[in-house]
Amino acid sequence: MNKRVDILWRVWLVGICLAMFGMGIFIRAGMTQWHHGEELIAESDSLVVTAEVLPAQRGSIFTADGRILSTTVKIYSLHMDFKLEDFDAQEFTAILPKLCDSLALVFPKRSSYQWQEYIKKGYVEGARYYPISNQLMLSQMKRVKNFPWFDRGQYSSGLIIENQIDRMLPFEGLAARTIGYMRQTGDSSSGVVGLEQYFNQELEGEKGIVYKKMMSQQVILPDIERQDIEPDPGLDIHTTLDIDLQDYADATLRKSLADHKARFGCVIMMEVETGDILSMVNLTRNKEGKYVESYNHAVGTLIEPGSTMKIPVMAALLEKGLQLTDMVETHKGDFRVAGKKVPEATRPKKFYYDPWDVIKYSSNIGISQFVQNNYEDNKSFYEALYKQFPKENTGITLQGEQSRNIPPLSEWNAISKAWMSFGYGLELTPLDILTYYNAIANKGVAMQPRLVTHTSKFGEVVNSYPSLSLGERVRPETAETLTKMMQLVVEDPKGTAHSALSTRSVSICGKTGTTKIADDQYGYEDEINRALFCGFFPVDKPQYSMIVLLSHIDAKEFEKMGGGSTAGPVFGDIAEFAFAQVGNKTSTDSSLLATEGVVLSTMLSDDWKTITSILDIKSEQPLYTVSEVSLNKDNNAARLNTSSSYQSQQNIVPNLIGMGLTDAVTVSAELGFKIACKGYGHVKEQWPSPGSSMSRNGEISLVLK
What we know:
CATH topology of the largest domain: Beta-lactamase
Largest sheet: 7 strands, mixed
Helix content: 25-40%
Number of domains: 5
CATH superfamily of the largest domain: DD-peptidase/beta-lactamase superfamily
Distance between the termini: 96 Å
Number of strands: 30
């Protein structure tokens, strides 16, 4: 009994003590709240709250077939600090040869011995920020971290690793000015030119914010009173560009520019029915004499169109009532307007020219007389020009497009009407000229040049940009007549583009143009010329239109330069390549289709996609290479087998050799791997090797050629 009382007494004592202790805490809290509440709240509010901005993942830009034109990657740079407190100089000297052997393997610009000499130089100088390398991908950086000496970590080895977000162009300079580039300003970046600028808002997404409260210099905690904002990734941009056509057009124009020592040039190819821009090449000679994409001449440079203007002028004349049998005298090449001689490139072939001859021979005397005879004053011709070019510009989705320059009537003089008829005294961009010729190919209906088909996020279409008509420029029958006239330019033995284009594998029609270049101070320079050719192909069912421009060629050095002899061959080469690559989509020879169970040589999925498009076969679009195709009896559907060597497993590095970048990225992403790449084309090398083990979020480095 006494024992029980003793236990109860102790329990009661502990309970009373705890109750008194709790009551004391409660009273103390109440007193603190009563006496110091406002003071403590004010102190809490005075703590520094920081808002850390989290940049959103910028969207990528893709070609028409899904290959990456521009994307965001993290780039690393390496430096060394030789004055660390824990830097062991003696041990470093002993390990240096092994370190340099490793560096020479990854960075072969220096041999192992050269690396030793280079690093010793930094060590002797006591450098705190000695450059080792930059522009490293993640996989390279990880390898370097495991090199002898560097594997000790930053605070013992002195290795400084920094990173920055960079915009990578897998195809390097191809279409660089059209794609655009980024400019970094503080913590933010934005597109400066091209699609990067025009679609900057869509690409950049919405930045996120993380709020933090600084309790002290050492203690920083999340601010739970504020709601963090997650970054929202930007949209992907899907273009109409065909990178294979772009590549070929770039190389072809580049060679011709170099051969003629031209200052700059451009090529634009458009799909007739849709207005889709398939390639846009802009090359300018820099101070080193190399041709680079530094300015978009296609939309940003106004030029006098020269004889390519004869087609719009002839269209206006035909629509006004000019008869195809009407004639004008050639005056033996000596025709004057207000006392000034009209320039003629060659001696007239006949005493009289009809409209067919004017276009075929590119006669300035002929076109100016037809204009003089059919337009009684400057105003009527001025209105005719505006009817042919009613829009100030095309409205393409690129910043900086220049508006066409047809001078106001108040600036016209006695010879303006005549000279404008053959392309002097007014200015258009190359894209303006092409858009007009594309309308002729499209039965008189102009299409707005389209560079972007849609935007997407996570594979889902967000906004579509359909093909848009700019309205009828000429009647269909006028377009047909103009097409026949432009055929003579190529097919007639005396046509100005006959020698360059008449024997091509695809039928071509178009118009040549050769102009002297105007100087603001000294007027027109006789020796410096510009060469153009604008047209479309194939003639019977036009699919593509194109303009080629080479500017600032020394005519004294290249006496035979001209629209036909200089721009014409470039046009012909690109046209043949384009037609061979894409083929005639309007018809397919049924004899080319097999019956069933066709076994093919292994092909990339990009190639299979092209084949199914041309042959109109319904089929899945594989992520791997195609090794066998089974067609149904009607030849309109296919079942595929894919090469087993390209099948994938979780946590195993896939075989990406031979794939295009789109396939490689897609396959890797499905397995949770990231991609770092250099070059363009198809995968020739990869690291780690296929079949290696690797955890999710690992990075595969690719070399494309």
